[in-house]
Amino acid sequence: VQLQASGGGLAQAGGSLRLSCLASRYTLRAYTMAWFRQAPGKEREFVATINWNGGGIRYSDSAKGRFNISKDNAKNTVYLQMNSLKPGDTAVYYCRSSNTYRSYWGQGTLVTVSS
């Protein structure tokens, strides 16, 4: 499994960004996909997840109501639409694929939100 995250960059508070995670073929049909983030000096934390069948969508409390996770199996891509961004959303965002036996991480994409 290979994962390639992209879409990070600089945004102003209140703005939006959409992150993409391109996965190797068939990954989205077999694995649970999730987004995590790690802010400077902090531990990596969960942001959102979506099951292989498109169900089981969950968000962290900080993401709820502002972020939306989705996937396009045909494009082998998982998205994280981030709206109403806050400076506290500044972090490196990682996508992860997982099943019962193992998990895989992408390389991360940096999101910086200015006030």
Secondary-structure blueprint:
Layout: E1 3-6, E2 9-12, E3 17-23, H1 27-30, E4 32-38, E5 45-50, E6 58-59, E7 67-72, E8 77-82, E9 91-98, E10 103-105, E11 109-114
Parallel strand pairs: 2-11
Antiparallel strand pairs: 1-3, 3-8, 4-5, 4-9, 5-6, 7-8, 9-10, 9-11
Can you characterise this structure?
- There is one protein chain.
- The protein has 115 residues and is mainly beta.
- The chain is built from one helix and eleven strands, in the order βββαββββββββ.
- The strands form two sheets. Strands 2, 4, 5, 6, 9, 10 and 11 form a seven-stranded mixed beta sheet that branches.
- The protein is globular, with a radius of gyration of 13 Å.
Summarize the structure.
The chain has 115 residues and is mostly beta strands. The protein has one helix at 27-30; strands at residues 3-6, 9-12, 17-23, 32-38, 45-50, 58-59, 67-72, 77-82, 91-98, 103-105, 109-114. It has one helix and eleven strands; from the N terminus they run βββαββββββββ.
Main sheet: strands, sense, barrel? 7 strands, mixed
Distance between the termini: 37 Å
The overall pLDDT average reads 95
Task: Report the uncertain regions.
Answer: none
**Helix segment tally:** 1
| Secondary structure: number of strands | 11
Provide the succession of SSEs: EEEHEEEEEEEE
Report the radius of gyration as a whole number of Å.
Answer: 13 Å
Q: What is the SS-derived class?
A: mainly beta
Approximate strand percentage: over 45%
Q: Which range best describes the helical content: under 10%, 10-25%, 25-40%, 40-55%, 55-70% or over 70%?
A: under 10%
Shape: globular
